[in-house]
Amino acid sequence: MCDGHPSEIADAWGKRARNAVFALYDAKSLAVSLRRSPDCTVDLSHVAAALGGGGHAAAAGCELSDVRPALAGMVADRVGRVLERK
After folding, report:
1. For 20, which DSSP code?
2. Can you say how many angstroms the Cα of residue 9 is from the centroid of all Cα atoms in its chain?
3. Of 74, 42, 76, 75, the residue nearest 23 (C-alpha)
4. Does the residue 1 lie in any domain?
5. Residue 7 confidence class, pLDDT cut points 50, 70, 90
6. Domain residues for 72?
7. What does the pLDDT read at residue 14?
8. How far is residue 23's CA from residue 7's CA, in Å, rounded to a whole number?
């Protein structure tokens, strides 16, 4: 998860990771940004297209409409469990 600037985050991670793909859920745009390390040859446009998005070989993205409700459900579940113990 990130709070904007997925390209900068993936760029920093790509300097440390080898042959890696990064999938960042951007809390600002509510979208998934796909990036890869410089040595990775995976065509991210194909990955994004399979998820209903698009982009380029090295940088692509998509929106996953079920992610936001799933996260909200997880938060509600955890808060509920804490409240049950009180």
Report:
1. -
2. 11
3. 42
4. no
5. confident
6. 6-85
7. 72
8. 11
Burial class (CB in 10 A: 0-12, 13-18, 19+), 34: buried
Task: Count how many domains the chain has.
Answer: 1
Backbone angles phi, psi at 23, to 5 degrees: -115, 110
Reported as a single tens digit per residue, the pLDDT across 49-72 is: 999 999 999 999 999 888 888 888
Q: What size, in residues, is the chain?
A: 86
Please write the tens of the pLDDT for every residue from 13-52. Answer: 777 889 999 898 877 777 899 999 989 999 999 999 999 9
35, 14 Cβ separation under 8 angstroms? yes
How much of the chain is helix, strand and coil, in % rounded to 5? 40, 20, 35
**Which two three-digit tokens encode residue 72?**
């909200």
- Asked, for residue 45, whether it belongs to a domain, the answer is yes
Question: DSSP 3-state assignment of 44?
Answer: helix
Contact 16, 40 (CB under 8 A): no
